[in-house]
Amino acid sequence: MQAAGRLGAVSDSPRLDAELLMAHCLKRDRAWLLTWPDHVLDERQQACFDNLLQRRLAGEPVAYLLGEREFWSLRLRVTPATLVPRAETELLVERALTEIDGRPRPRVLELGTGSGAIALALKQERPDAEITATDISASALEVARENAARLGLALRLLESDWYNAIDPGERFDLVVSNPPYIAAGDPWLSRGDLPAEPQSALCSGPSGLEALERIIAGAPVFLRAGAALLFEHGYDQLEPVQQRLREAGFEQIETWTDFNELPRVSRGLWTGKGG
Q1: Which domain holds residue 31?
Q2: What is the pTM of this model?
Q3: N or C terminus: which one in the chain shows less Cβ crowding within 10 Å?
Q4: Rounded to whole angstroms, how far apart are CA atoms 44 and 50?
Q5: CA 43/CA 52 separation, integer angstroms
Q6: pLDDT in tens, the chain (275 residues)
């Protein structure tokens, strides 16, 4: 496919990108494309594909062009107001499900929900869970609200700067988050699809630890004894996040690696003893 060759300059998966854009314009799936490789586009379909191709070449993520992304087998609406859910974040969902396994009607707080991907995946697997999801962005919350309604999964959604909108009297069995953790000025912010995604959801300050520090420091107020704080972080942040968990009074600290064998998700248990 000629388009795939052109997309090689902006994408690590140019053929996949081209096929997804083509399937979208044809209102078919990728399997149909493989079955009918010689299909000739009509004028409307060609115009649609040319438009999407040009936008992809300009750096727009495929998920924004299609308006959706699959995560945890859920088809989610995404917009430039939200991060594009990534496969490695499914590790965070897996660990969260393990943390609440065996707890009847667990209360879960997700911080920085974006499209609602993590909260909705948890609700899909644990319909009995009471899940509160927050985001500082009203636009992102609207996307999460639409996803929840379309999937028929009930969430409590709050506009909040991390814990600010949570009643200090509330207690949860799990606090979970995939916060911004890339340092300002990191070259990764200028690569791939990242320049098109909301920078506030990628970067929280000069070190990349600013949001993680707020999340760790604030969590004990909202955790029941025996509950856990679980979050995603950068592969090079293992030592500082474990140190901050210890300083905040968390115990049984563990870290799990992603499918690239890089440290990606850490957990601290709150025993109620304090820091």
Answers
A1: 2-58
A2: 0.90
A3: C
A4: 10
A5: 14
A6: 566 567 666 677 788 888 888 888 888 776 666 666 667 778 788 888 888 888 988 888 999 999 999 999 999 999 999 999 998 999 999 999 999 999 999 999 999 999 999 999 999 999 999 999 999 999 999 999 999 999 999 999 999 999 999 999 999 999 999 999 998 888 888 888 888 888 888 888 999 999 999 999 999 999 999 999 999 999 999 999 999 999 999 999 999 999 889 999 999 999 986 54
Distance CA 118, CA 126 (A): 12
Q: CA 267, CA 171: separation in Å to the nearest integer?
A: 17
The first and second tokens of residue 92, run together, are 């965070």
Are the C-beta atoms of 93 and 118 separated by less than 8 Å? yes
- CA end-to-end distance (rounded Å), the chain: 59
Return the half-sphere exposure (C-beta side, CA atoms, 13 A cut-off) of residue 40: 2
Dihedrals φ, ψ of 227, to 5°?
-90, 170
CATH number for the domain that contains residue 32: 1.10.8.10
User: Same domain for 124 and 189?
Assistant: yes
Are 181 and 212 within 8 A, CB to CB?
Answer: yes
Query: 134 and 113 in contact (C-beta within 8 Å)?
Result: yes
Q: Please report where in the chains the tokens 């996803």 appear, as a residue.
A: 147
